[in-house]
């Protein structure tokens, strides 16, 4: 069955190019562990004004699976109602139940979001046929929103191989518009970009951004752009002779954040950036970052050259 869409009108969400710098936004929460929509809206607005082409909400960095589907759908509606352009939103659909993933995708579709970042099921072990069926159900019988496959086998326990990607592309047509490769394996990411030039291939690793763009890839969907998007934008736009220092700064920050692990180091830096400790709240099972780790991370953030003024007060 041909599921390819008709060309989108110029003002449609699909007219927004799937490429560039996309922050996988962290999610602020209240003391009652509910999504703090005003802070989320303010941060998304800051990101879009400071280097990001688009933003992705409720993914891994955004602690998506820790919130109910109802909470994520309500927050997404509120974000759009508050003025964040839906064509610049790539919400993640992270659910073990295919019908819950479909509900998230349908909400994104109704609101006019650019695409949905689709995670494979992550509880029961699955083979390629099972994941293909899951995606069929999650996207619905007549999908009208683009899908970006979320390849993060360390957490989902499933790897999209090239044979399956090709079969999914044949089945879903251009609705399968991209893939985010969060393996951290540069060779693998570059191979995907060369194998599927018609698909927008994103890396999740800051250090792989320029090599991926040179190989025809689309850009980055990552957590650290929550705080270094302005520098990544400068890197992309800078003459080649000025890139070495920028890459050194980006690499130093990447090493610092990865050294601590998880979304909380990024929340620490967002709290520092916005001068707002409310961002330090975590949703169980994730724990807040210890104060000593926060201090060490901020020191490395500043020493790497990211001591710019807070974006929000």
Structure commentary:
The protein is α/β, with parallel strands linked by helices and 313 residues long. 44% of the residues lie in helices and 11% in strands. Strands 2-1-8-7-6-5-4-3 form an eight-stranded parallel beta sheet. α3 crosses α4, α10 packs antiparallel against α12 and α11 packs across α12. The N terminus and C terminus are likely disordered.
Shape: globular
Uncertain stretches: 1-11, 309-313
Element pattern in H and E: EHEHEHEHEHHEHEHEHHHH
Helicity, as a percent range: 40-55%
Largest sheet: 8 strands, parallel
First and last CA, distance: 53 Å
Beta content comes to 5-15%
- Backbone structural class: alpha/beta
Structure summary:
The chain is of the alpha/beta class and 313 residues long.
Task: Give the topology.
Elements: E1 20-24, H1 37-49, E2 54-56, H2 69-81, E3 92-93, H3 98-111, E4 115-118, H4 128-139, E5 146-151, H5 153-156, H6 162-172, E6 176-181, H7 186-195, E7 200-203, H8 209-214, E8 219-222, H9 225-237, H10 243-260, H11 264-274, H12 291-303
Parallel strand pairs: 1-2, 1-8, 3-4, 4-5, 5-6, 6-7, 7-8
Helix pairs in contact: 2-3, 3-4, 9-10, 10-12, 11-12
């Amino acid at each position: 069955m041909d599921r390819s869409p008709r060309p989108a009108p110029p003002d449609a969400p699909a007219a927004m190019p799937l490429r560039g710098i996309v922050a996988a936004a962290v999610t602020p929460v209240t003391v009652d562990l509910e999504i703090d929509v005003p802070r989320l809206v303010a941060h998304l607005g800051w990101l879009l004004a400071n280097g990001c082409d688009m933003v992705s909400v409720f993914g891994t960095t955004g602690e998506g699976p820790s919130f109910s589907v109802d909470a994520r759908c309500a927050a997404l509606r509120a974000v759009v109602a508050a003025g964040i352009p839906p064509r610049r939103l790539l919400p993640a659909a992270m659910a073990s139940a295919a019908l819950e993933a479909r509900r998230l995708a349908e909400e994104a579709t109704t609101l006019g979001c650019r695409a949905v970042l689709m995670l494979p099921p992550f509880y029961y072990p699955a083979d390629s046929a099972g994941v293909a069926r899951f995606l069929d159900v999650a996207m619905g019988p007549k999908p009208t929103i683009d899908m970006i496959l979320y390849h993060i086998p360390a957490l989902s326990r499933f790897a999209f191989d090239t044979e399956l990607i090709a079969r999914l592309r044949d089945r879903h047509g251009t609705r399968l518009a991209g893939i985010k490769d969060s393996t951290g394996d540069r060779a693998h990411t570059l191979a995907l970009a060369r194998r599927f030039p018609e698909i927008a291939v994103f890396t999740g690793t800051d250090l792989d951004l320029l090599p991926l763009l040179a190989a025809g890839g689309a850009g980055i969907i990552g957590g650290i752009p929550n705080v270094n998007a302005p520098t990544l934008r400068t890197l992309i736009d800078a003459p080649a002779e000025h890139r070495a220092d920028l890459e050194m700064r980006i690499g130093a920050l990447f090493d610092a954040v990865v050294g601590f692990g998880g979304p909380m180091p990024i929340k620490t830096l967002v709290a520092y950036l916005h001068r707002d400790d409310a961002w330090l709240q975590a949703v169980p099972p994730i724990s807040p970052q210890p104060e000593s780790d926060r201090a060490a991370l901020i020191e490395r953030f500043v020493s790497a050259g990211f001591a710019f003024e807070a974006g929000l007060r």
